[in-house]
Write a structure and sequence with these properties.
four-stranded mixed beta sheet; 15% strand; five-stranded antiparallel beta sheet; 2 domains; 635 residues; single chain; elongated; alpha+beta
Length: 635
């Protein structure tokens, strides 16, 4: 019976890891000739990480420019969708459609050349599908990689010239693939691709708006001609004609699996290897603990219990020697309570968000939806944070300062993140980035947050303080015991630096893919891997913190409270160091503002990781120590 059950669980886990998130909640069907809306997103670059509005450059604008209603995260991140000037009619191909003619001034030319130099890309979406360029890999021609968006232009240099030339992609050839319903004849969009060209258009006779006949792009010819021998260069006073094609192609791709091509990558093998490597590491750590710590602990508890039953005199040694001091309050207990409450809130937020994402509740395109859910989960976990901090504080000090502790819990991490955000937002404002959040919006969001999050934390703190204080299984001595001299391998600095490596090692590979996803603007998939990684992280933090605490108590050192938090929590130091290595080894960021953006956001992530892992280690030690000191020998 056990073997089929294990096989069933293994199959369920494999399906969870392999299944991509749901692409969308609603199916949009189009009849022939129906209008399909093309939306433009921000301009992005991996070299600057500073987004800009699509219409900040001299591109064609629609007659009625309307922004889509942004979500909270899109409002904070500056990612706003806008209507594009491109008009599609379902299954109605178009050739060489003129959008507009733009006269390039000195300012426009300078900004466009700067964006081309920084490798900015244009992002669009059609029926919630992102615009991509299909690229076949050199080492494996059968494998296609989809690159999001297209470059604004390219930098060139003719032979014998010293100065660079900048060419803009002013002709866009769109390819829309669709699935056709056999019964209704309706079409569903399953792919949205593009092939950009730079063409110095020439027109015959005089300019007649969108009806002008172009000699460089003749759709009426027997064979469609697109002359790109002379690319369109960016020059002051130059007139640029923007054109586009729309090609529709029936595809065998099913609408339910239209995201498979975008999310199909070769990194799944590396992620499986990461999980197996973490499992082997944790298994080795568990075996070591079982053979040394747990074995000796079980023997000592049994021996002490037998001695008490026989009313024999006990000679206290090891961890039992400090039973009268092990629950003595730590230094600065209020801060520890605040850290623990914040860590509980972050852990609940992460667990809920990742679990829902792994079950397919979020579209890969709609990363803002995932982040909105994270913000909502964080607010809903507020009562648990307040309950935890006030409950612990009452155990340490049965006073009225629980209100101060609770409110500090409500503003500690959000306040730190907010300060970083305000500083970075001011830098983005100086760069005139589309990610800049207006001051009025910031004030409105702060008022909205202050009316929701702190009250929820305070409610949890109130109920936590009303509960009876947690009773210790042993009495605390009035006089603290002197701590003997510690061996070098059990001292705090060594144990914390060595012990914190294990939690970081479990998330190392997944951290790499997360950084690629965020800073390379890639598609992130496989939230099942992330969920399994979170479980492994919890196990790693619990095991290493418990082991360090046990050997610390055996050496006669009863000050375990803060060390239990720091042993796993300081893995955030390794995370930040790896983020620094990733910056210099993988990124090509060129602007000082972009450098500050990267390290500012990674500092927030590292601080959150510190609170998360530290809380896991702290509570693991807390319950472990309460367990061993509540045995019969201490009854």
């Amino acid at each position: 019976m056990r073997q089929p059950l294990m096989l069933l669980c293994a199959a369920a886990v494999a399906a969870l890891l392999a299944a991509p998130p749901a692409a969308a909640l609603f199916i949009h069907e189009f009849d022939k000739g129906d209008e399909v809306l093309v939306k433009v997103n921000e301009l992005t670059s991996i070299r600057t990480q500073i987004p800009y509005s699509y219409y900040s450059l001299p591109f064609c604008k629609p007659d009625n420019l309307v922004d889509s209603a942004p979500t909270i995260w899109q409002l904070l991140h500056g990612d706003r969708q806008q209507m594009s000037p491109f008009l599609f009619e379902m299954r109605v191909p178009k050739k060489c459609q003129i959008v507009c003619k733009v006269l390039v001034g000195e300012k426009e030319a300078k900004e466009t050349m700067e964006k081309i130099e920084d490798e900015y890309r244009v992002n669009m979406a059609l029926d919630n599908l992102p615009l991509t360029i299909a690229i076949r890999r050199i080492d494996n021609g059968a494998f296609v990689v989809y690159q999001r968006g297209y470059h604004i232009g390219v930098v060139g240099q003719y032979t014998g010239e010293e100065h660079k030339r900048y060419f803009v992609n002013n002709h866009l050839s769109f390819w829309v693939k669709y699935e056709r319903d056999i019964d209704t004849g309706a079409s569903r969009i399953v792919a949205f691709e593009i092939r950009p060209f730079s063409v110095k258009h020439q027109f015959e006779a005089r300019w007649n708006g969108v009806n002008t006949r172009l000699s460089t792009c003749d759709p009426s010819a027997h064979k469609f001609i697109l002359s790109s021998d002379y690319p369109q260069e960016i020059k002051v006073g130059e007139e640029i004609i923007f054109t586009y094609d729309v090609n529709f192609e029936e595809s065998e791709i099913k609408w339910a699996s239209r995201w498979d091509a975008y999310l199909s990558t070769t990194d799944d093998q590396a992620r499986w290897f990461s999980i197996v490597n973490s499992l082997v590491t944790l298994l080795a750590l568990s075996v070591a603990m079982a053979m040394t710590m747990l074995r000796s602990l079980h023997r000592e508890i049994f021996r002490y219990s037998q001695l008490e039953t026989q009313n024999e005199a006990q000679v206290e040694t090891g961890w039992k020697l400090v039973h009268g001091d092990v629950f003595r309050p730590p230094s600065n207990p209020g801060l520890l309570c605040v850290y623990a409450g914040s860590g509980v809130q972050l852990f609940g937020t992460l667990l809920i968000t990742i679990a829902f994402a792994a079950l397919g509740f979020f579209s890969p395109l709609n990363s803002a939806g995932l982040r909105n859910a994270m913000l909502l989960s964080c607010a809903l976990m507020g009562p648990f944070a307040g309950y935890t901090s006030s409950r612990l504080y009452k155990m340490f000090k049965n006073g009225s300062e629980w209100k101060h502790i609770t409110m500090t819990t409500a503003i500690l991490f959000p306040g730190f993140a907010f300060v970083i955000f305000v500083v970075l937002n001011s830098l983005l404002r100086n760069e005139k980035s589309s990610a800049t959040v207006p001051s009025s919006t910031i004030c409105a969001l702060v008022l909205l947050w202050s009316g929701i999050a702190p009250p929820l934390v305070f409610v949890g703190g109130y109920f936590g303080f009303k509960k009876p204080a947690i009773e210790h299984p042993v009495e605390i001595n009035k006089t603290p015991r002197k701590i003997p001299k510690q061996a070098w391998y059990i001292r705090p600095v060594f144990t914390i630096l060595v012990g914190s490596i294990f939690p970081f090692a479990t998330v190392f590979i997944e951290l790499f893919f997360g950084l690629i996803f965020v800073w390379y603007h890639r598609f992130y998939h496989g939230f099942g891997f992330l969920l399994v990684t979170l479980v492994l992280l919890v196990i790693a933090c619990a095991e290493i913190s418990t082991a360090v605490c046990y050997y610390q108590l055996r050496s006669g050192n009863y000050k375990w409270w803060w060390r239990s938090f720091l042993t796993s929590g300081c893995s955030a130091v390794y995370l930040f160091l790896y983020a620094t290595f990733f910056f210099f080894a993988k990124l090509s960021i060129v602007k000082p503002v972009s450098v500050m953006l990267y390290f500012g956001y990674m500092l927030v992530v590292s601080y959150a990781f510190f609170l998360l892992t530290g809380t896991i280690g702290f509570f693991s030690c807390f319950f472990f120590i309460r367990f061993i000191y509540s045995q019969r020998a201490f009854g």
